[in-house]
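Regression check, 2'-deoxyguanosine-5'-monophosphate case 114:
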Amino acid sequence: MTDCLFCKMCNGEIEPDVVYQDDDVLAFRDVNPQAPTHVLIIPKTHISTINDLTPEHEALIGKLYLAAKQVASDEGLAERGYRVVMNCNAEAGQSVFHIHLHMLGGRAMQWPPG
Ligand code: DGP
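Current build output:
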């Protein structure tokens, strides 16, 4: 999508602080980090929300989680622990409508989240 912020990161129009990428996935540091490590992991294809997922996206969603695992390991968080979360629509706090996993770590997390 031409007016999607995260699509612009995938096509090189905007250059985020990339920590991982492959053919299908891009991972970059959040501009407004909520933890010492806060990385967003996105598919390179545009999907607006979880509600838009179809069975054909099954493998792609798995790749997002495998990328989160890789980034956590690279950041030294695998044993300490980290949180992976995806918001869907307004009440959950989604503000960018191109699905993304938040990978947060480097501090103790609270539960339930606010
Ligand atoms: P969410 O609220 O779940 O849709 O998360 C969107 C995240 O995107 C939020 O944590 C801030 C981040 N973000 C917004 N604009 C930019 C940007 O221009 N660059 C980067 N790196 N992150 C951004």
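Comparison notes: The CA atoms of residues 43 and 92 lie 20 Å apart. Residues 5-105 form a domain with the HIT family, subunit A fold (CATH 3.30.428.10). No diff flagged against the previous build.
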